Structure formats: structure tokens, C-alpha cells
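Batch manifest, entry 17 of 40.
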Amino acid sequence: MSLVMVEKELSRTVAKVRSVPRIHMDSICSDAMDVLKQQDADCFLLTDGSKIVGYMMISGFYQMMGSRFGYSLYANKKISSLGMKQVLMLSAETSCADMIDEALARPVGDRYDVIFIRNGSSIGYVTIADLLELSAQTQKEMQQEQVALFRKMESRTLHIQGDAHELREVNHRGKELAEKMSDRADAGSDQVERVLRHVKRQWQHVNEQQANVTNLGEKIEVIRGVVDTIEEIADKVNILSLNAAVEAARAGEAGRSFSVVAAEVRKLAEASKQSASSIEGVIADIIASIQDTSTKQNQTQTQMASSKEMIEELHRSFNMLQEDISGFMTELTYMWEKGHSVSEKANETHHFLEKVQEMS
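Output type: C-alpha cells
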């Protein structure tokens, strides 16, 4: 029973309580009759000063006094001599059901007598009929309250069923979306992996080109050494041709032909030196180009290394995204299973409420 129902029952019980007359236990029966004629009650309390010692039903008292020779026998006797019943005193806060149980637990002769109610300092009484009426009213209200509660629970159960169905639909759509995201992540990861392999091959090619450039520079240095040797030989040949020309001049007419040869040799030496100088210039240009190429190759290597790191990081990110999507799909599956379980429980509750309503 709800707190509101308890308060209502208590209020109705208090409203049903009737005032009860009190008569001293030593009063004579004729005086008691005079007092009771002025009262509209079903019973009265017998007291000894402020102490309650028992009660009598007025109908029983009149029955004894109205019997043959009753008045003559009892009119001048103490009312307590007619016999007293033990008072059943209950608190006003006692429920109707408990009051009825207490009343029915009394001896058979007293079972349907009144029940005395203490409400603070005042004392009154209620009849069994009053209690049955209160109990019936309370049961009716409880039944109405239960019906309202069942209907409310049924409405909420239907609402839960709707929410569970909607949750399953959302989970289903989320699962489909997660699967699409997973497929796209797989495709993106594959694409990144292909790009990464391509970058690695380019990185290898750049390293090979850098090695070739370095090797070419080394060979150019060898050529430069050969050119230096040619220049030295040309200088020496030039000196020798000058010496030969001097000796030919000393020989006079006999050395004239040798002088011509020496002159040609000197021209050849000068031409060789000029060619060597030209080659040296070309070599210098080639070395400058090689150095520039090497610098650019180094820059390319640095950029490709950075690109490689970025692509590897992107690849790791795709892998993490795949793991997150996998975890998300697991959670969606769990939520779908829970939503299905909630829906089943809601259906069971709904069927149970229908059976309870049919029984009530």
C-alpha cells in the first residue's frame, strides 16, 4: 500500500471513530440506564477513576435489564456485577486489516463487538461493520491504484519496447556505417602502403644516384690527375724543345732541320698545354655540376626521408583507425545484444502485466 493510501485510510478511520460514554464501575444499573438513554452509542466503558477496567455492549446491557425480572434483579446492583468484557484498545494508526485480524482473534462471543481506538489522549470506538466498510473502500482504491499502476507500467513497457527497437535500428545503421568506414580505411591503408613502397623504391634510386655521382666525382679527380700529368709533360717538352732550338742554332746550317722539328715540338707542347687547360676548365665545370647535383640529391634525400616518415605515420594512423573501428563495431554488437535483451524483457513484462490485469 502506498503512503498516500495509508494516509487516506488513517483519515477515514479517524473520521469513523465515535465517542464512547464512560460509567464508573460502581454505578448502579438504574443510574447507568438514565445516563445511557441520553447517549447514542453502541457500547460504554467501565472505569475506576481514570482507569479503564472493561466495557459492555449497550444492546447486551438492555437485553439483561429488559429480560423477565431483569430490572428487579439488577436495578440496584453495581453495573460491574453484570460482567465486563476485556477492552481491545488499538492505535488510530493501525491499519484496517490489522484491526480486523485483532478483532477476529478475540473469543467467539466478543469477536464482533466494537474496537476501541486511541487517538492521542482521546478514546473512541469503531464497529466491525465500520472496519469492513473501510477495508472494502481501501481495497477498491488499492485495486484502482494497481490498475492505474499496471496501465502506467504497460505504457512504459511499450515505450521501452519502442526505444529498444529504435536502439537496434540505430545500432544496425551504425554497424553498417562502421563496416563502410572499415572498408574505406582498409582501402586507404592499402593505398598508403603502395605509396610507401614506391617512396622506398625512389629512396633506393636516389641513394644509387648519389653513389653514382660520388663515383663520378672520384673518376673526375683521376682525370684531373692525368691532365696535370699532361701539363707537366707539355711543360717539360716545351723546355726540351727550347733547348733543342738553342742547340740547333749553335749547330748552324747543320742543325736547321732539327730546329724546324724543335719548333714543331714546341708548338705541339703548347697546343697540348692549351688542350689540358681547356680540359681542366671543363673538368671544373663538371665538378661544379656534380657538387650542385650532389647538393640537390642530399636535399631530395632529406625531403624523401621526411615524406617517408609522414607516410609511415599516416600508415600507423590508418592501422589505429582500423583498430578503433573494430572496437566500435564490437561495442555496437554488444549494444545491439543488450537492446535485444531489453526488448525481450519488456515483452515478458508486458505479457505478465496483461495476465495480472486479466486475473484482477
